């Protein structure tokens, strides 16, 4: 049985399977959102956001989950957080397990456990190294996404590979469904198998190539959202694939306003048809139905008002203002 320290964001898909496995989760570090800083404003607003999510979505936050399970918990802002090495050493973990972390883990931390640290990365490494492989899979219309369990080293997703798997997905699959299949059904299984192999001393490791030709799976800058889709060049089905996969966060089209502020479009089907005078990328209304025009057709959009989304929108804006 391994003693494990988890680093993740929120109550991610790996937490419960690891806690209920034969291994012993001794502590959890929650990776703070990119740009977050220690201090009471962030703690207060982060807690408020969690309370809203729990009240309206029936979602427990990670801190409450750890408290209920009797697992030590700490928020992680960076590997240089004061007292972090001492906090990690207090639990003497055999291994650190990472999934969904907003910053790179430094050697001063990942070298503390006797077995080091491993990461569950949502791509077939060395493809799509970086923090946002999900988006670039959609962007490239890659319908065979994979997952990799690999050692953490000083590079970005460059450590030796321990296990890999992939799935086939249909065009236009939405992100929650894709993550359910890729992470919950494949990634978690590979992760648990890897833990068992490390515990038994039978794990094998495959070095990655140092240099790769494919793009880095970077995060988009805010100003790129409106220009990332090439409306005049892309066929409607490629636009549809990206909008469906990113409907929870990408602002490539104007989102609902007025009383619907804070809501997001639900992306329906696409249709190859004439859009008349409407320009690609333009949201318009036709016979009571919303659409976004594309070069060769249109994509159906629907909107529904939910108070919970408005409240989340307000709290998120407050968090962004605090971060400035």
Secondary structure elements and pairings:
Blueprint: E1 3-8, H1 15-19, E2 24-31, H2 40-57, H3 62-69, E3 72-76, H4 84-90, E4 95-99, H5 107-110, E5 117-121, H6 133-139, E6 146-151, E7 161-166, H7 175-200, H8 236-245, E8 266-272, E9 283-286, E10 289-293, E11 297-302, H9 307-323
Parallel strand pairs: 1-2, 1-4, 2-3, 4-5
Antiparallel strand pairs: 5-6, 6-7, 8-11, 9-10, 10-11
Keywords: Transferase
Domain Formyl transferase N-terminal: 81-171
Organism: Pseudomonas mosselii
Report the CATH C-level class of the largest domain.
Alpha Beta
Question: What does the main sheet amount to?
Answer: 7 strands, mixed
Strand order of the largest sheet: 3-2-1-4-5-6-7
CATH topology name of the largest domain? Rossmann fold
- Name the CATH homologous superfamily of the largest domain: Formyl transferase, N-terminal domain
Order of helices and strands: EHEHHEHEHEHEEHHEEEEH
Strand content: 15-25%
The coarse silhouette is globular
Total count of helical runs of at least 4 residues: 9
Mean pLDDT: 90
Number of domains: 2
Backbone CA Rg: 21 Å
- Contiguous runs where pLDDT drops below 50 for at least 5 residues: none
The count of strands amounts to 11
- Structural class, by secondary structure, is alpha/beta
In helices, the fraction of residues equals 25-40%
- Under the CATH scheme, the architecture of the largest domain is 3-Layer(aba) Sandwich
From the N-terminal CA to the C-terminal CA, the straight-line distance is 44 Å
InterPro entries: Formyl_trans_C, Formyl_transf_N, Formyl_transf_N_sf, Formyl_transferase-like_C_sf
GO molecular function: methionyl-tRNA formyltransferase activity
Protein name: Methionyl-tRNA formyltransferase
Domain Formyl transferase C-terminal: 226-302
């Amino acid at each position: 049985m391994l003693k494990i320290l988890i680093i993740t964001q929120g109550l991610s898909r790996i937490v419960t399977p690891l806690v209920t496995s034969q291994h012993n989760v001794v502590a959890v570090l929650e990776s703070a959102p990119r740009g977050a800083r220690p201090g009471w404003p962030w703690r207060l607003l982060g807690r408020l956001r969690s309370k809203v999510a729990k009240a309206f979505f029936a979602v427990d936050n990670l801190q409450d989950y750890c408290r209920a399970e009797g697992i030590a918990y700490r928020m992680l802002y960076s590997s240089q957080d004061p007292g972090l090495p001492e906090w990690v050493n207090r639990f003497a973990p055999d291994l650190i397990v990472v999934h969904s972390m907003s910053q790179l883990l430094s050697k001063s931390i990942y070298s503390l456990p006797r077995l080091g640290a491993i990461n569950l990365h949502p791509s077939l490494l060395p493809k799509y190294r970086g923090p946002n492989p999900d988006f670039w899979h959609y962007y490239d219309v890659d319908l065979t996404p994979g997952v990799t369990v690999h050692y953490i080293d000083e590079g970005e997703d460059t450590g030796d590979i321990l296990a890999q798997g992939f799935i086939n997905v249909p065009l236009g699959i939405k992100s929650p469904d894709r993550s359910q299949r890729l992470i919950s059904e494949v990634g978690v299984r590979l992760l648990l198998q890897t833990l068992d192999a490390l515990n038994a001393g039978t794990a094998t490791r495959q070095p990655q190539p140092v240099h790769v030709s494919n793009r880095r799976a970077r995060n988009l800058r805010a100003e790129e959202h409106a220009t990332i889709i090439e409306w005049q060049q892309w066929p409607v089905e490629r636009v549809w694939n990206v909008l469906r996969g990113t409907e929870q966060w990408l602002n490539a089209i104007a989102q609902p306003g007025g009383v619907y502020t804070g809501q997001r479009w639900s992306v329906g089907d696409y249709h190859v048809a004439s859009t008349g005078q409407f320009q690609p990328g333009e949201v318009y209304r036709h016979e009571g139905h919303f659409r976004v025009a594309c070069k060769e057709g249109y994509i159906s959009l629907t909107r529904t008002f939910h108070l919970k989304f408005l409240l989340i929108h307000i709290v998120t804006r407050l968090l962004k203002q605090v971060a400035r």
